[in-house]
Design brief:
Pfam families: DUF58. Keywords: Membrane, Transmembrane, Transmembrane helix. This protein has 453 residues and is of the alpha+beta class. The protein is 37% helix and 28% strand. The protein folds into three domains: 62-171, Immunoglobulin-like, CATH 2.60.40; 174-198 and 245-449, von Willebrand factor, type A domain (Rossmann fold, 3-Layer(aba) Sandwich); 205-243, no CATH class. It is built from twelve helices and 23 strands.
């Protein structure tokens, strides 16, 4: 039974049989063709038998299987990123094996096109690579690797199955986090759209004195240290070097309410906020600040105190992995009460939420003003890119004019929200979802460079 389950007939066989049927019908009108067709048919059957023998005569060569395949997966997939998947094929058939590979990927991807065709020479290891971009966190189940092997005649197929039922978790975008981390360590964040912020003044945390170089602020010259230098061959000017304030508390406040359920390019606003929080927390730790996390909706979710201990980043990653959207109205009063009791030291609060209308923002404004009184509050909300594309499209009909007018009204309200928050001294970012991480890191570095935290 296992032999018949592994045996498949190629399309070439069915086409040849169809050709024989047509030829035999024609042979009734031309009887001289009948003996030739009979010989050809028996030759064809002989070739099919030979093809079957070549495919199924052995299952192993020595102690090794006659054909082997495996899938190389990361221990976890990165949400919203292209994750590389590698297939390794190894053949010990004595001929060049033509193979078709169908990889059973998780149903969440809704793809049925993961089909590859290749040729594997004897004792050769062939590598195939493709990418998967998950858009939801959670566990993904990979099925079997189905490999259909054919001889050079391509009449029959022998199916091999490998690696059935492997679970792989999908975590927040740790690939993006590592990318920002490497570029931050090498001071190359501008490659990802991070702007260089000109320092206005300096913090009061003294680091060292060093020789003056062109472009240094003249106000930082240390005249006493300069007077003590007596070597005439060296520049006499010495300046004080200051460093950024360190060990500041940076909290990411993530709204999990229904306003964060909207999808853009496959990811929900909550997932965009989670990915940005992961990157920002890591950048804050690199800048010697303390990173914390609070999730909330109709009730308070996870609270991770701001720390800078070894393994703290892994703790934040695990907490973000488990977050899910809730469908109730967000309770900002509970958020304020939690911060009032658990965040005693002044710090930077990055609130990831979404306001569609100015009236919706005004309902929460009293709590935002209270938070801004005790902390530096940065409200991050999202521009509707679908409306933006509608506004950029020319109107050709009366219906288009009405739609553009409504879209302009919503876009105007978003801009008004920014202005009204500024009136109360609340920092804000209105950003497209895909630009969220870069804009948030930009704002954090700007606030830090200006000594506001």
């Amino acid at each position: 039974m296992s032999l018949f389950r592994a045996l498949f007939v190629s399309i070439r066989v069915w086409l040849i049989l169809l050709g024989f049927v047509v030829a035999f019908v024609v042979a009734y009108a031309l009887p001289l063709l009948l003996p030739v067709l009979e010989i050809a048919f028996w030759v064809f059957l002989l070739l099919v038998v030979i093809d079957a023998v070549l495919l199924f005569r052995q299952s192993q060569v020595g102690s090794q299987p006659v054909f082997f395949a495996r899938r190389a997966l990361p221990e976890r997939l990165s949400n919203g990123d292209d994750n590389p998947i590698t297939l390794y094929l190894e053949s010990r058939y004595p001929f060049n094996a033509s193979v078709e590979i169908i990889d059973e990927i998780p149903f969440q991807f809704q793809r049925r096109d993961v089909l590859f065709q290749s040729e594997v020479k004897p004792n050769e290891v062939r590598t195939l690579r493709y990418d998967l971009r998950p858009t939801r966190r959670g566990e993904y189940s990979f099925g079997a690797i189905n490999v259909y092997v054919m001889t050079p005649m391509r009449l029959l197929k022998r199916r091999f199955q490998f690696e059935q039922g492997r679970l792989v978790p999908v975590y927040p975008s740790y690939l993006q986090m590592r990318q920002y981390e490497l570029l931050a360590a090498s001071n190359r964040l501008t490659e990802l759209g991070i702007k260089k912020i000109r320092r206005i003044g300096h913090s009061m945390e003294f680091e060292q004195v060093r020789p003056y170089t062109q472009g240094d602020d003249l106000r930082t010259i240390n005249w006493k240290a300069t007077a003590r230098r007596s070597d005439p061959n060296q520049s006499n000017l010495v300046v004080n070097a200051y460093t950024d304030e360190r060990s500041q508390a940076v909290y990411c406040l993530i709204d999990k309410g229904r306003v964060m359920r909207s999808p853009f390019e496959g990811l929900t606003l909550l997932d965009y906020a989670i990915n940005a929080s992961l990157v920002l927390s890591n950048i804050a730790l690199i800048k010697q600040d303390r990173a914390g996390l609070i999730t909330f909706s109709d009730k308070i979710g996870q609270v991770v105190p701001a720390e800078r201990r070894p393994g703290h980043m892994l703790k934040i990653l695990e907490v973000l992995y488990r977050q899910k959207t809730r469908y109730l109205e967000t309770d900002f009063e509970a958020l304020y009460a939690t911060i009032r009791t658990q965040v005693r030291q002044r710090g930077l609060l990055l609130l990831f939420t979404n306001f569609e209308t100015i009236s919706g923002m005004r309902r929460q404004l009293p709590y935002l003003r209270r938070l801004a009184k005790d902390h530096l509050l940065l409200v991050v909300f999202f521009d509707n890119t679908e409306l933006r594309s509608l506004l950029d499209t020319p109107a050709h009909t009366t219906e288009d004019v009405y739609l553009k007018t409504i879209a302009e009204k919503f876009s105007y309200e978003k801009r008004q929200i920014v202005k009204e928050l500024q009136q109360y001294g609340i920092q804000s970012i209105l950003t497209a979802p895909k630009d969220l991480t870069a804009n948030t890191v930009n704002k954090y570095l700007e606030l830090k460079a200006r000594g506001m935290i």
